[in-house]
Amino acid sequence: MPSPSSDQNSRPLKPIPGSYGLPFFGALKDRHDYFYYQGQDKFFLSRIKKYGSTVFRTNMPPGPFISSDPRVVAVLDGVSFSVLLDNSKVEKRNVLDGTFMPSTSFTGGHRVCAYLDPSEPKHAAIKSFILSVLASKHDTFIPLFRACLSELFTNIEDNIRDNKTANFNALSDDMSFNFVFRLFCDGKPTEHGLGPKANTDFDKWIFFQLHPLISLGLSKFLNVFEDMLLHMFPLPSFLVKSGYDKLYNAFYSSAGVILDEAEHRFKIKRDEACHNLVFVAGFNAYGGMKALFPGLIKWVASGGESLHRQLADEIRTVIKEEGGVTIAALNKMSLTKSVIYEALRIEPPVPFQYGKAKEDMVVNSHDVAFEIKKGEMIFGYQPFATKDPRIFTNPEEFVSDRFVGEEGEKLLQYVYWSNGRETQNPTVDDKQCPGKDLVVLLSRVLLVELFLRYDTFTIEASKLSLGTSVKFLSFTKATMTV
């Protein structure tokens, strides 16, 4: 198994290559390269080739005028990237979205937990609250998600029957919002005054916060217009306030037990707790599912009937032996688990990580070391770190059984999708995703439900600015039922 060198002290110290260019104009050029002339991956690959290094200096979008300082030190291999997971070395204050932070007016005037550094007093209280909420819902996850998936697959079948194709993203988004709301609010959205398409309010709210990092993929003649609209100035929150207020009020009125707990046990003001809950539900959970589920389906589809047959055999055999879809059953599905980890490795739902150096430090790559000064922004592009050819064999290939067996499980320490190693669990003292285990669990349940119902399926996939678009074309119904 290829692996990075374990000797942390033998690497020669070299200056960090790269350039920020002229003030303003250098950042502007890099932004146009990133969005329009090269694209994301080529932007990084061209600089790796130019400098002969996976660690280099560059500017990251959005730059002028949204970001006051777009300069970063990029760490793009599996070894150097890990510095971003060390909270003793990097500060995570206001860096969720990189070199800029959306206005707190999007979250009721509060800096929610995702923007807090673990050193800030509120971080421990709010993250403890979030972890406590998830723990209290532990027995609800599987039955509720299975019920939501049943509706999803019925809708997909109806769409294929009527229209010959089914837009998975749209149907999955509806299902994900329904699940998240029911999980936290103990009722369907329509029962709490929200319309059947309330998730579009979340979509707009998320877009207005992340637009500086997005390209719409318009024709080249419209690039200048798009750049001025999306990347020059922040869009005002009042344009999405009414939709957000509807969601906030629905959570505030229906999640009373959760908010009582926040006030009395964790000493968090009720309105601040609710804004954090809405952020976790909308930005983290629903937003994460929007990116994760289409990507997972795309990669599983790429394995064809052979992989589908293997997954169906494993899932149905284990479910029959265990007598149902349980945590114990899911933990016995070694290939199913590996497929999830491989999808998270090859296409992590959150591709970027940032942190500001707390002190002068030396960061190791595979063969050399670099000195980063206190206060410098460090940037990691996760898909490169988790496709490091020095760690993973055939890193660009989707290898369904990559993480099966003892040697495969050793590689999980280099799967960083959750802002932490897959071998670690989130705590109040770190910035690892509090819903890390829930994400993996729901992904497994999605595949279990898929292959309990169908033997194989076909899709059509295309790339979006923030993920993958999937259309289901056909299903072959299961020939064996459990």
TrEMBL record:
CDD domains hit by this protein: CYP74
Cofactor(s) the protein needs: heme
Record GO biological process: fatty acid metabolic process; sterol metabolic process
Keywords: Heme, Iron, Lyase, Metal-binding
GO MF entries: heme binding; iron ion binding; lyase activity; monooxygenase activity; oxidoreductase activity, acting on paired donors, with incorporation or reduction of molecular oxygen
Superkingdom field: Eukaryota
Residues that, per the record, bind heme: C433
Record Gene3D superfamilies: Cytochrome P450 (1.10.630.10)
Any Pfam family: p450
Family indicated by similarity: Belongs to the cytochrome P450 family.
Protein name per the record: Uncharacterized protein
Biological source species: Cannabis sativa
Lineage: Eukaryota, Viridiplantae, Streptophyta, Embryophyta, Tracheophyta
